[in-house]
Amino acid sequence: MAKVIAVVSQKGGVGKTTTAANLGAAFAREGQNVLLLEVDPQGALAPCFGIDPTTIQHGLASVLQDHIEPRAAVIETSMAGVSLLPALAPHEDELELERCASAHTMHLREVVDALVPHYDVVIVDAPPTLGFLARMTLAAADSYLVPVQAEQFAYRTLDRLIDTVETIKKDFNPELTCEGLLITMVDLRTRMSVKVVNQLYENFGDKVLMSMVPRTVTLQDMPVKGKPTVVHAAASRGGKAYNDVAQEIMANQQKP
Amino acid sequence: MAKVIAVVSQKGGVGKTTTAANLGAAFAREGQNVLLLEVDPQGALAPCFGIDPTTIQHGLASVLQDHIEPRAAVIETSMAGVSLLPALAPHEDELELERCASAHTMHLREVVDALVPHYDVVIVDAPPTLGFLARMTLAAADSYLVPVQAEQFAYRTLDRLIDTVETIKKDFNPELTCEGLLITMVDLRTRMSVKVVNQLYENFGDKVLMSMVPRTVTLQDMPVKGKPTVVHAAASRGGKAYNDVAQEIMANQQKP
Ligand SMILES: Nc1ncnc2c1ncn2[C@@H]1O[C@H](COP(=O)(O)OP(=O)(O)OP(=O)(O)O)[C@@H](O)[C@H]1O
Ligand SMILES: Nc1ncnc2c1ncn2[C@@H]1O[C@H](COP(=O)(O)OP(=O)(O)OP(=O)(O)O)[C@@H](O)[C@H]1O
Ligand SMILES: [Mg+2]
Ligand SMILES: [Mg+2]
Question: pLDDT at residue B204 above 90?
Answer without folding.
Answer: no
